[in-house]
């Protein structure tokens, strides 16, 4: 038994399959398309949760696999459930743990479920459709996800077909095992990199009475072209009357592309993880606050942003915090990045409603290009800066530097252009290949620097769903995010020698 | 030229030399006795500064030595001064850098000043009364401190006498070099562990027209008995019409003892540093939130506390955050600890005004004993718990566990007693000796666990003024707090293996 999560389409885009809508949950209404910040282990990292609403979050993510291990769902329930535990009254979606388990190398998969040893203490654990449902119901999330098998993108056709069929049988078991009336349950469409199998999985999963449908197994290292090809194969056949959720995506350019295919929900660790490495998202492009050019920069990160960080602090102050390794820098950057993703989705919704989504999508692609040659960045920047003009922005705080809108735009143009270009050239080298030439210690050394999401396998703070190389690397100690100690390291920005 | 910081005594304690008063600064009135949180490098660590007022901070500290190195006072001035840089409108006191410089091993001291190489990049630096004044005036703090020489506590009489006399000559030079009309300037009394020299320094310094007088060179590893002996030699001779500031102190028991001698101002890194290690201060005693017994504890840290952390989170949640190494734990613990110190000083002021300070002091000593035998802990706990009774505390938030005052007190009694005792026995071993038996790597491994303040040399986040062993250990790389990287490590709680 599940709680229907009624989804109502509000506006359909005329030039793409984008749509706005509302998803009604027991804890409130979610305006879609929506981006969901990730709080894998019961905390959005470095963020006191009272900021969630201020940054525009409407619903957040947590993870079954991680919370089952620590602190355990029984304890969370005893403490009043996941919302009280984390001190948020926002709706929470829990991922099923399927992705995390399948990113471990040592596991035994059978029709029944998956056995594995927990990487921190070797504790033997068994997860199945039934146990995953039980855990998620005990945690008390608003939306539970079906327990699925998620394959690496290079899996062959036959393996993928068998997996798709098992995921479908598991989906039925999930529905049967789900008994909590106030929790919604979403199914997950798989199918690897095969359009035929994507459609096969879609037919299987959407024939079952889930409250919403997710697309899994993408953004796992296959690259944006393949991902978009798979979305194109799948999305036209998705039911229109239920919410559609693209798991583990993504970068700003992926979000607008996903929206254009009709996706309503996204989640990704990019804004939080990159913040801790000093990579900051703005409507002028992405900046690395650790760069020497920000040392003396008295402007806020983004003069058009209303977040606590931009209202109160200069780029120079953030640069200083990262330079001295002060964790306050992580918190302030996280607040800003989440606000950027919140604002981006608000702009997406508004643009669908007023018929300008295609133009917005183009601008986002110009600011966050796959390849620099795509161009148009300057024009896009000007448009976002002009967006901020009509309302004469009042000074938000005594401590805010003087930022008349004119100064803002000039500054934006002057200081962003050249380095951003240099950066995007660097990061758009075919990342997997470039990286695979490096030794693992080298890669590890590069890790905390807030790299490109796709390289980063940035979907989850746990074993990387977003990471093609995961199975080959993981064994019983997934590379990232998983253990407190390793996470602690990740959150420390790279130390820079001062010039 | 300095800005007078008019100090008015409000109430004199009848049984001790304690007093309440007000210190008038350009940025507002400070109620004394006051505890000043430390933001050495321009940030109270792990604390978004909008929380400063909520935790009861009235004035905060920053450091000349650190800010001179990074990001440099000229840049801070260009960015609008220290207050705008840090985004706080609270008054700021800057320490002169004297203590930090003298904790370095490689330095050349002359009548003129001190030369040294900055420990991070080897940059040659010269600090003197004149340069320290210039830096502090450029930073734009509300209270500047005179540039003094601070000796290790084991220095001999003759060395200390010469140092005291030079500090007096430097004090005159500071007054002459100080030209900023809106900044107050405090002198610092030194004199090592010699009562005669303390009085000599006091006569020299208080004969000069400073706006307030500080006592330096204590809490540097000499132990509470010697410190109290030196205070007893000095305080009766301090001018009564100006604010008196005991630098680098301290623990709750040191605060009430200092107040009893007539001290008006304190600063210490204990609340912030210990928070990052999971050592949490309450009116039931100090707890280690990393202890297994808090794993399932649904109560807030302190049921009588009104801070954001206690209003929203359980001990079990904080325990979980420290267990997974999530920095949000540092932030939440910092908020609580600073609020505890703020509340403690508010209680101290109220008790002086209503004639009950001696009783409060006794209770604090019972909860934070030098030796467990002192006893009375249970009675003191009950009194603080009863303090919270008259007002039936309304639930502060939906997420707060049910904490009827009865349950609270029972819980407090039940869960605190035995482990606290065990802990205090452990920590009251003569700390320096116990520690010196260990190798440096062993000590390093123990560092992040929020050790006893006195052992920790916890006065400053930079080279430890509070640390007797500092000169022997420091060389050009002070042990703690100084480099971003090392600080990053400190803030990561020790990883625990789950049982």
Report what the structure shows.
The structure is a homodimer of 499-residue chains. The first copy, chain A, is of the alpha/beta class and 499 residues long. Helices cover 42% and strands 14% of the residues of chain A. The first copy, chain A, contains 22 helices and 16 strands. In chain A, the strands form four sheets. In chain A, strands 4-14-13-12-11-10-6-5 form an eight-stranded parallel sheet. In chain A, helix 7 links the parallel strand 10 and strand 11. The radius of gyration of chain A is 22 Å and the shape is globular. The first copy, chain A, starts with 6 loop residues before the first strand and ends in an 8-residue tail after the last helix. Chains A and B meet through helix 4, helix 13, helix 14 and helix 22 of A and helix 4, helix 13, helix 14 and helix 22 of B.
Offer a concise description of the structure.
2 copies of one chain form a homodimer. Chain A has 499 residues and is of the alpha/beta class.
């Amino acid at each position: 038994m599940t709680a229907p999560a009624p989804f109502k389409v509000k506006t359909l885009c005329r030039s793409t399959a984008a749509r706005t809508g509302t998803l009604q949950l027991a804890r409130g209404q979610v305006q879609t398309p929506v981006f969901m910040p990730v709080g894998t282990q019961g905390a959005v990292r470095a963020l006191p949760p009272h900021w969630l609403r201020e940054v525009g979050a409407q619903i957040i993510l947590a993870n079954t696999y991680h919370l089952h291990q620590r602190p355990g769902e029984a304890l969370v329930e005893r403490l009043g459930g996941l919302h009280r535990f984390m001190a948020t009254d926002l709706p929470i979606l829990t991922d099923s743990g399927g992705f995390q388990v399948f990113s471990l190398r040592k596991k035994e998969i059978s029709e029944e479920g998956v056995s594995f040893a927990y990487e921190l203490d070797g504790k033997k654990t068994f997860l199945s459709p039934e146990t995953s449902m039980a855990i998620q119901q005990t945690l008390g999330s608003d939306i539970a996800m079906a327990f699925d098998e998620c394959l690496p993108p290079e899996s062959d056709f036959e393996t993928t077909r068998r997996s798709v069929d098992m995921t479908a049988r598991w989906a039925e078991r999930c529905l049967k095992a789900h008994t909590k009336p106030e929790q919604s349950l979403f199914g997950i469409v798989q199918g690897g990199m095969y359009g035929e199998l994507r459609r096969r999985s879609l037919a299987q999963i959407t024939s079952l009475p889930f409250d919403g449908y997710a697309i899994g197994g993408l953004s796992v290292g296959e690259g944006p072209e393949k991902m978009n090809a798979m979305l194109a194969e799948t999305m036209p056949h998705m039911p229109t009357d239920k919410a559609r959720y693209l798991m583990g995506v993504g970068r700003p350019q992926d979000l607008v592309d996903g929206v254009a295919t009709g996706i309503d929900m996204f989640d990704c660790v990019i804004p939080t993880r990159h913040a801790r490495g000093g990579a900051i998202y703005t409507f002028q492009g992405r900046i690395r606050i650790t760069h020497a050019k920000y040392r003396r920069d008295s402007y806020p990160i983004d003069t058009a942003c209303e977040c606590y960080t931009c209202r109160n602090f200069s780029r120079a102050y953030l640069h200083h915090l990262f330079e001295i390794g002060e964790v306050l820098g992580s918190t302030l950057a996280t607040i800003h990045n989440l606000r950027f993703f919140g604002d981006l989705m608000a702009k997406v919704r508004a643009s669908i409603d007023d018929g300008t989504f295609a133009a917005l999508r183009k601008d986002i692609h110009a600011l966050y290009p796959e390849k620099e040659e795509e161009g148009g960045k300057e024009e896009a920047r000007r448009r976002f800066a002009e967006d901020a003009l009509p309302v004469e922005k009042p000074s938000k705080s005594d401590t805010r530097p003087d930022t008349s809108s004119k100064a803002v735009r000039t500054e934006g143009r002057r200081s962003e252009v050249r380095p951003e270009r240099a950066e995007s050239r660097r990061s758009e080298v075919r990342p997997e290949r470039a990286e695979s030439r490096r030794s693992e210690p080298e890669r590890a050394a590069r890790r905390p620097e807030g790299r490109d999401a796709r390289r980063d396998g940035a979907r989850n703070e746990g074993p990387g769903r977003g990471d093609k190389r995961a199975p080959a690397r993981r064994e019983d100690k997934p590379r990232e995010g998983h253990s407190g100690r390793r996470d602690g390291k990740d959150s420390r920005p790279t130390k820079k020698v001062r010039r």
